[in-house]
Amino acid sequence: MKRYDTIDALRAALGRARQTGRTIGLVPTMGFLHAGHLELVRRARADNDVTVVSIFVNPTQFGPSEDFSTYPRDMERDLALLAEAGVDAVFTPAVEAMYPQPLQTTISLKPLGDILIGTVRPGHFSGVATVVAKLFNVAQPTRAYFGEKDFQQLTVIRRMVDDLNFPVEIVGVPTVREEDGLAMSSRNVRLSPDDRKAAQVLSRALSEGAATIAAGEGDAAGVLAAMTARIVAEKGVTLRSLDIVDARDLGTVDRIDRPVVLLVTAEVGPVLLIDQREARPA
Ligand code: PAF
What we know:
Pathway: Cofactor biosynthesis; (R)-pantothenate biosynthesis; (R)-pantothenate from (R)-pantoate and beta-alanine: step 1/1. With 282 residues, this protein is of the alpha/beta class. The chain has helices spanning 7-19, 35-47, 75-84, 95-98, 117-120, 124-139, 151-164, 193-198, 200-214, 220-232; strands spanning 2-4, 24-29, 50-55, 89-91, 143-147, 169-173, 237-246, 260-268, 271-279. It has 2 domains: 2-173, Rossmann fold, CATH 3.40.50.620; 186-275, 2-Layer Sandwich (Pantoate--beta-alanine Ligase, Chain: A,domain 2). It is built from 10 helices and 9 strands. The longest helix is centred in the middle third of the chain and has 16 residues, at 124-139. The structure holds pantoate. The site of pantoate has 10 residues, from strand 2 and helix 6.
C-alpha cells in the first residue's frame, strides 16, 4: 500500500493506472475507520483493479460550533487497517494541500442540501459536495463508494454527479450496524456507556417505523408521531429531526404509497448521530 500526501503525487500514480486501462475505486473517508468503511473498501476492491482511500477530516463541512477539533483521529491505526484490507493507495492530504488558498468556488445544491440535516447543519452539504468534487477531480475514479447511513449525503452526491456530468459511477453501500443495531459511526467512540445504550433507541424506532409501514400504515404523520414518542421518551437523547421522505429525491411524503426513507438526527450526550432506514408500503 502506498501513501500519498500531495495531489500531484496521487494524480501521477493514478494516471499511470488509468493509462494501462485499470479501473479505480475511490472510498472517501474522514478516517477513524470502522467496519462500515471496511465494507466500502471490500466493495471497491471487488469492483475495481485499483482501490484508493482518502483520509481527510474536511474542515469546510463542519459548522463553527461543531466537532471539527474533537473529531476522532488515529492515522496509524487507519493505515494498518487499510493495509490489512488490501488497499492499493491512501491519500492523506493536509488541510493546506486541499485548500492552498481560500475557495472562491463552491458547490451547493438547492434545495437538496438545505433540507433535512441541512437545516440542522447549515452549509454542511456544500462543504461535502465541494470536497467530494475536488476528490473526484484529483483521483478521477471509475467508481466511488459511500455509505447509505448518510442517505442525504449519498443523494446529494448522486445529484451533483448528474447535474455536473462527473464521469464516475456512485455506489451506495448498506449501513453496517453494531450487534445492538446502532449504526457504525466514527463518532460512536465519543458516547459514554449510558449514551451508547440510549442511542439504541434510534435504530429501534426506525425499525418499528419501517415495520409499521410494511404492515400497511400509509399515513406518514401517524408513523412519525409514534416514532417521535418513542425517541423523546429516552433519557439523554435530544431529537433534532425525524422525517419520512421519497427515497429517490428526498421530497416530502404525506401518503406512503412509494418507497420511502426514514431519517433521524439526534444528539446523544455530546454527539450528533444520524441514522436511516428504507421502507416500502405493503
Ligand atoms: O462521509 C464522510 O466521511 C465525509 O462526509 C466525506 C464523504 C468523506 C467527505 O468529507
